[in-house]
What we know:
There is one protein chain. The chain is an alpha+beta fold. It has three helices and eight strands; from the N terminus they run αααββββββββ. The chain has a six-stranded antiparallel beta barrel. A hairpin with a 4-residue loop joins strand 6 (130-135) and strand 7. Mean pLDDT is 82; it is low at 1-25 and 162-175.
Amino acid sequence: MMKRLTAAAVAATLGCFVLGASAPAATAGEPYWQCVTFARMFSGIQIFGDAHTWWRQAQDRFETGQRPQTGAVLTFQPVGRMSRGHVAVVSEVLTDRVIRVTHANWGGSRGKVEENVTVVDVSNGGDWSAVKVWYNPINDLGSTVYPTYGFIYKAPAERPEGLLMASVPATAGQP
């Protein structure tokens, strides 16, 4: 546990130095949080790199799907000004089409963490492939529809049964 906290503190501090003067800190003396650093620390899902790469990286390492679960990471596809995608951690499932997420570096809250932000599934099939996100400045859901890849769950990916056996010839070990 101490190693995780130390690593998070180092990552947050390094993030502030790397960003330098080009990105203002949330508040003087506070870390400037990126969504990936925060999601990795908050969820415990150890994926690195830009948010848009998380879905691909998760395929062989973690369970993935189209249903929200508390603690899962919702992965947004890159679109418009969000060219590197976005990741957010599910903090609460309210209904089959409404969740709350906790995430960092979103919209008007550059470098800050926002807790329990409402996200609504607006996809035609109810598969969470398109969402709207609460936007505080207007005190309502934003008008932008964001495409998503889906959810990454902390559970390791399951291997199909017999995967190891398939590579062993049927006659192996017989005289």
